[in-house]
Design a protein that fits this description.
Elements: E1 2-5, E2 22-25, E3 31-34, H1 50-60, H2 65-76, H3 82-86, H4 126-130, H5 138-143, H6 183-188, H7 199-211, H8 217-227, H9 231-283, E4 293-299, E5 306-312, H10 324-328, E6 333-336
Parallel strand pairs: 1-6
Antiparallel strand pairs: 2-3, 4-5
Helix pairs in contact: 1-9, 8-9
The structure holds a DNA duplex.
Length: 360
DNA sequence: CTTCAAAGCTAAGTTACGTCA
DNA sequence: TGTGACGTAACTTAGCTTTGA
C-alpha cells in the first residue's frame, strides 16, 4: 500500500531557518512527501532532512553546534499544527547520542576558553567512565588506567604493544596495545592495524564531539596530541562518529514517520467513513439533515490556521463541496490533503493568534 | 573579473579487525 | 574451538568549497 501524504504545497518551499522541504522515503512501499515549513508540525525534530542535517550545519557554521541545537529545540517546541488537531503524536525524539554524564570532569579542550589544567586524572573518574563500554575485557579495564597524560604523542612508550600491569596508579602510564601505531607501522603500510581506543580516549573524544562535531585542523592536532593519537585517527573518529549519529537519528526519524503514516492512515479511514455517513444522510429522506453538524476543516483567515470545526451543511441548493479527502484519494492509495490551499499550512507559531476572525 | 587546477574537507559507502555470545 | 553477529577503526571515492595563479 502506498500512502501519499500531501501536507500543503507540494512545491518545494524555500528553506527557512534551517527547515527545508523534505522528501523522505519511508520504505519501498510507503513514501511520505512532507513539505516541512518553519512551523509545520509534521516535521522531524531535526528540523531538517537528517540526511542533510550534518552537512547543512557544519557548512553553514561549522562551529555553531550549540546554537543550532538550541534553535532546533525552539523550533520544535510549542508548535501547533494540523496533526495536533486530531493526531496525537509524540514529537520525534532528538537523539542525544552523547554520554549522559561527562566522563572526564577535567575536560578542558585546547580550544576551549576554559583552558584549565590538562592534567588528566582519569583514575578519579573511572567509575563514571565505566559505563561507556561494558564490553571491555578485564585486560582493557586494566589498561584503562591509561592516563591522559597529554604528553606529546609518541613520547609515551616506545613499544606500542607494551602494557603496564601491576604498576602503582601514579606510575601507570600505559599505552594500550596498538593504541597508536608506531611510525614504522604507519609508514610500512603493511595492513591496517585495527585498534580500539581506550575508554578515556573515547570519552575525551566524545566530550570534544559534544562541543564540536567537526574539527578544524588546529583542534584536530590539539586533540591528537592530548590523546596521544595521530591526527588522522582523530579525524577518522570524528567522521565515523558523525556517521553513527546520523544513522541513529535516521532510525529515530524513520520510526517517527512510520507512526505518523499509520496515524494518518487511520485518520484517513475515519474521514472516509464520515464522508460515507454524510452522503447517506444527504440522500436520506430526513428533512432535518441540513441542520446536522458536520465536521470539516476551516482556516482561520487571520492566522491561517486550519481548525476542525462543526458547520451546518449547506442547503440542498448548494453544491456539496467535494471533500478534500475524496478529491485527493488516489486509487490504491490513501491521501490526506488537509489544506484547501497550499499556503493554508503555513501556521504561525503563536497560539494566541488563533482567534476567530472578528466579523467585519 | 573569469577560469582552472590543486588542496582540503566532508559524506557515503566499504573493508577489515576485534570482541562476544 | 569454531563461527556468525556486531561494533567500529580505517580506507576509498566522489562532491563541494576555497585559494591562488
Amino acid at each position: 500500500m502506498e500512502l501519499g501524504l500531501s501536507l500543503g504545497d507540494a512545491t518545494p518551499s524555500k528553506p527557512s531557518n534551517g527547515f527545508i522541504t523534505t522528501t523522505t522515503t519511508v520504505n519501498t512501499t510507503a513514501t511520505t512527501t512532507v513539505g516541512v515549513d518553519k512551523s509545520l508540525g509534521f516535521c522531524m525534530a531535526l528540523g531538517m532532512n537528517p540526511l542533510d542535517a550534518t552537512s547543512h550545519q557544519h557548512k553553514e557554521n561549522p562551529h555553531a553546534q550549540d546554537d543550532h541545537d538550541d534553535d532546533d529545540d525552539d523550533d520544535v517546541d510549542g508548535e501547533e499544527h494540523v496533526c495536533s488537531q486530531r493526531i496525537s503524536m509524540n514529537p520525534p525524539v532528538q537523539l542525544d547520542l552523547l554520554p549522559s554524564a561527562p566522563v572526564l570532569r577535567h575536560t578542558s579542550f585546547p580550544w576551549s576558553s576554559d583552558n584549565g589544567s590538562s592534567e588528566g586524572g582519569s583514575s578519579g573518574n573511572a567509575a563514571a567512565g565505566r559505563g561507556l563500554d561494558a564490553k571491555r575485557t578485564p585486560a582493557e579495564e586494566a589498561s584503562s588506567s591509561f592516563r591522559l597524560e597529554f604528553t606529546s604523542y609518541g613520547r609515551i612508550g616506545g613499544d606500542s604493544h607494551k602494557r603496564g600491569f601491576g604498576i602503582g596508579n601514579d606510575a601507570v602510564v600505559v599505552e594500550r596495545a596498538s593504541s597508536r601505531a608506531s611510525d614504522e607501522d604507519e609508514h610500512n603500510g603493511m595492513s591496517r592495524k585495527k585498534l580500539r581506543l581506550s575508554k578515556e580516549q573515547s570519552a575525551y573524544l566524545e566530550e570534544s564531539f559534544k562541543e564540536h562535531n567537526t574539527l578544524n585542523p588546529k583542534q584536530k592536532l590539539a586533540l591528537a596530541e592530548q590523546l596521544n593519537l595521530r591526527p588522522r585517527q582523530v579525524e577518522v573518529w570524528f567522521q565515523n562518529r558523525r556517521a553513527r549519529t546520523k544513522l541513529k537519528q535516521t532510525e529515530v526519524d524513520f520510526e517517527y514517520l512510520k507512526r505518523c503514516c499509520e496515524t494518518l492512515t487511520d485518520e484517513n479511514r475515519r474521514l472516509h467513513k464520515e464522508l460515507q455517513d454524510l452522503r447517506a444522510l444527504k440522500t436520506s429522506t430526513n428533512p432535518f439533515y441540513m441542520q446536522l453538524p458536520a465536521t470539516t476543516l476551516t482556516m482561520c483567515p487571520s492566522c491561517e490556521r486550519v481548525a476542525t470545526t462543526s458547520v451546518a451543511i449547506p442547503p440542498p441548493s448548494t453544491t456539496l463541496t467535494k471533500p478534500l479527502v475524496e478529491q485527493n484519494s488516489v486509487k490504491g492509495s490513501t491521501s490526506l490533503n488537509l489544506s484547501p490551499k497550499p499556503r493554508s499550512l503555513i501556521f504561525g507559531s503563536s497560539n494566541s493568534h488563533h482567534q476567530p476572525a472578528a466579523p467585519s
